[in-house]
Amino acid sequence: MSEFAIDVHGLRKEFGGKIAVENVDLQLPKGEVWGFLGPNGSGKTTTIRMLSGLLSPTAGTGTALGYDILTESEEIKARMGYMTQKFSFWTDLTVRENLEFVARLHLIDDVASVVSATIRTLDLQDRQDQLAGTLSGGWQQRLALAAVTMHGPDLLLLDEPTSGVDPLARRDFWDQIHRMTEERNMTALVSTHYMDEAERCDQVVYMSRGRLVAKGTVAEMIANSGLVTFRADGPGVRKLMAALKRASGVEHVAYFGAALHVSGTDRSLIERTIGELRSQNIEWREVVPNLEDAFIALTQKAGVAGERSA
Amino acid sequence: MTIPGWIRRSGAIFLKELTQMRRDRLTFAAMLAIPVIQLVFFGYAINSDPRHLPTAVHAEDSSPIVRSLLHGFQNSGYFDLSRTCDALPDCDHLLSSGEVTFVIHIPVGFTAALVAGRRPELLIEADASDPVAASSALGYAESIVSSALRNDLTGSLAGLQVGREPYGLVIHPRYNPEKKTQYNIIPGLLGVILTMTLVMITAIGMTREVERGTMENLLVLPARPGEVMIGKIAPYLGIGAVQTVLILIAANFLFGVPFSGSVEILALGLINFALANLALGFSFSTIARTQLQAIQMTFLFFLPSILLSGFMFPFRGMPGWARGIGELLPLTHFLRVVRGVMLKDASIRDLQTDFLALLAFTIFVTGIAMFRYRRTMD
Q1: CATH topology of domain B53-174
Q2: What is the pLDDT of residues B58-100, one digit of tens each?
Q3: Is residue A288 classed as helix, strand or coil in its secondary structure?
Q4: ABC transmembrane type-2 domain spans which residues (chain B) (predicted)?
């Protein structure tokens, strides 16, 4: 059996001739938590749906948990937990009824006690008789997590599980994910837009325009982006924004509170630009690019590449 | 003993549907109230033998004989002598405006001519624009007249009796044609109501999952198409059973429809028919993308079911092609079963063609549903 929980090659998906995902290779080692990043519409959901058997790939092969994603999707479904981007449990059933339904479909023998244990673990006791549709976003997400992990899956596919959830609930959620992956040697692929969540992952992959364009740890991603970032501080610094955006060597400028982050991949060009713009009251210093800088650079680079190839 | 997985998974879906159904109180109540309301509405409303039709009298003669003649009309129940008109134009107006359906003309000297044995003419003008409404009342007019007169033409006038043949003494016939209409309509309504509610409720079953976004979840859970279908239609089989009992009770108590045949055969027919409709509804819901489309498909099927099944119009009166379409509809076969069992004490042998047709229909649409059920979101 493969040491990878997910091992796919050349995945491709077309919708009516339009390519949504192309040439996706992904090897996800067992027991690791990977982040799946990329802008909206880059193909993350399509990829996750292909991995879960919800969509059949137009081309490509691979396995999930050792089962062929093309022919053995029933086996995969039984051992996988998939949390959809949009809350997709039954809003007219209570928390407990939703969990009981899922438990029965998974042929869990002692439905009542397994559901009760799950409810305790995820601290849903006070809400178990509440209709799922009346739960707040954070509690809905907790119900969804309970439902997709109750049968003890070996693989979790979570599609933007924390969108629209407050920071405290997000932190709880990630604590649960890490607890479960450690306790059960579970593997997880989690798509997200949050940089702090990406930093909680063993590795991250970055998708843009239907292709995986980068892979590695957060530190590697930053290093590999080849990005040089300078921070400009001082009164009136924001007025430089327009000039910086046009300046050579500057690939992206972002507000950071009162400061600006100016990034580019060509150190000499960017340093010359800064030299030209240097003035008395603005302080410039080089900083370590953060993941967000790296991702914005990746997105722009992929965009330029995409336009060139188009 | 271990219960097979497919039964457990079907059961899981069954319980979920049942819980959702119970929670949707309005729909649940509607499914139980609709049959009764429809039955009462249509049972009383659909009537090809209308009575108490407004009638005007244009009497140019007056005598005890004329009065008893008019009493005869009134007492028949078919004619409601609510108006009189003195001049002919007034009579015409009443008829053309639709205020009355009939005008009875008693000519000048009617009594004298009658007593003298000159066979005077009695004219009944009818508004035949709705031939059904007028025809049965007119059909009784002659016997009304003869039996009304018979009571007066006694003693020395006995020799003047208009007809020599003995007419029935009672104007009101013993076998009640009005009831006969309903004997036919009420069992048919059972089929019509089951068709509408069962097809529609299952037709929206899968599309509702798609529209609410729960389909994605259902697809990643380990439930196979057949299990989803069984779990989804089973609760409605129960609903259909309750509807049937309600309708049969109403048929008996409100309309006095007799039940001359075997309950077992009718139950068998009902299960066959309900399964055919549920399977059809489920296959609609695998084809339609939205609940609205599913409802439209239901109506597309419902209309020919009503018009070509023999419910509304006599099946034998339809042209061959229409009968051909009718033979493809489950309602056609169910109507033969339910009318046969309730009214004619039909045996299973009498009805075997219809049972086989219902079964074939169920298998066919189940095949479509299994073929069309999307196991992926492609």
Answers
A1: abc type-2 transporter like fold (3.40.1710)
A2: 988 888 888 888 888 888 888 888 888 888 888 887 877 777 8
A3: coil
A4: 138-376
